[in-house]
Design goal:
The chain is an all-alpha fold. It has one helix at residues 2-90. This is ABC transmembrane type-1 domain-containing protein.
């Protein structure tokens, strides 16, 4: 009699547990998929930020180089003009 009662009780409990486990598996699968999506978004954002930083650094370096070249050219022209004027004054 106990065995029969056990089987009567066991089957609904087993079915309930199986349904619950199936729901948990579905939820975990969805969460894992969301985790992969979030990870992909984070990777894309990090790559974009790194690319933007590299572009900004390159632009700043180019601007600094151009400014230094302009200053050097202006200085060379000024020195050459002053030396030409000094030579003309000596004559």
């Amino acid at each position: 009699m106990l065995t029969r009662d056990y089987h009567k009780i066991r089957e609904p409990i087993r079915l309930t547990l199986m349904r619950t486990l199936e729901k948990i598996v579905v939820v975990v699968e969805v969460e894992v998929e969301l985790l992969f999506v979030v990870a992909a978004v984070v990777v894309v954002v990090v790559v974009v930020v790194v690319v933007v930083i590299v572009v900004v650094v390159v632009v700043v370096v180019v601007v600094v180089v151009v400014v230094v070249e302009v200053v050097v050219v202006v200085a060379v022209v000024a020195v050459s003009r002053s030396s030409i004027l000094e030579e003309e004054e000596k004559k």
